[in-house]
Amino acid sequence: MAMSMPAEEEDGAMSNINTTPLVDVMLVLLIIFLITIPAAIQTVKVQLPKVNNQPTTTKPENIIVGVDQDGAYYWNAYRMDGGKDALKARIKDRVLAACPGGHCTDIKNLPEVHLRADVNTNWSFIGAAIAVAQSVGIQKVAFISEQDRPMAR
Q1: Where is 95: in which H helix or E strand?
Q2: pLDDT-derived band of residue 8, with 50, 70 and 90 as boundaries?
Q3: Would the pTM count as exceeding 0.70?
Q4: Which of 21, 54, 99, 151 is 20 to 30 A from 145, alpha carbon to alpha carbon?
Q5: Starting at the edge strand that comes first in sequence, how are the strands of the sheet with 63-67 ordered?
Q6: How far is the CA of 69 from the CAs of 19, 56, 72, 74, 123, in angstroms?
Q7: Are 143 and 115 in contact (CB under 8 A)?
């Protein structure tokens, strides 16, 4: 009986790398990422407002209301004692002066409220100022802000 002996070439260590398990693992990871990334990036589709960076033109009939971080209201640069009630009375007087009888048929005759609020102001104070303006009949309220970088010319 003959017995087969292995060749001398087979005695050495195997020098080839088996890449099949590596490819299998990479394919599994790729499939996992392809499935999970769209779920992680999900956002609600909304139409965001466009930025209009034009300087405001202050007309003399516009009302400038300031709100500091403590919730105090300012008429132009003067602090108003009395809070929301005093603010409402002042705005109402301005509306009555602009519209005889207190009812304007044309919105263009109404003054605008320009709201200057400190960056650290609680939003409830800002919302109260907007609500006061709306309760008197003013429909245009604008927020005044600073530009964070100089405009390119």
Answers
A1: helix 83-98
A2: low
A3: no
A4: 99
A5: 78-79, 73-75, 63-67, 113-117, 141-144
A6: 64, 23, 8, 12, 10
A7: yes
Residue type at position 5: M
What would the CATH number be for the domain defined by 63-144?
3.30.420
Q: How is residue 31 written in tokens?
A: 């499939």
Total residues found in the chain within this entry: 153
| Residue whose entry in the numeric block shows the structure tokens 């403590």 | 70
8 A C-beta contact, residue 140 and residue 130: no
Strand 73-75 to 63-67 pairing: antiparallel
Amino acid letter for position 57? T
Residue 110 structure tokens:
């109404």
CB 42 within 8 A of CB 91: no
pLDDT recorded at residue 55: 65
Q: Which two tokens stand for residue 21?
A: 């398990």
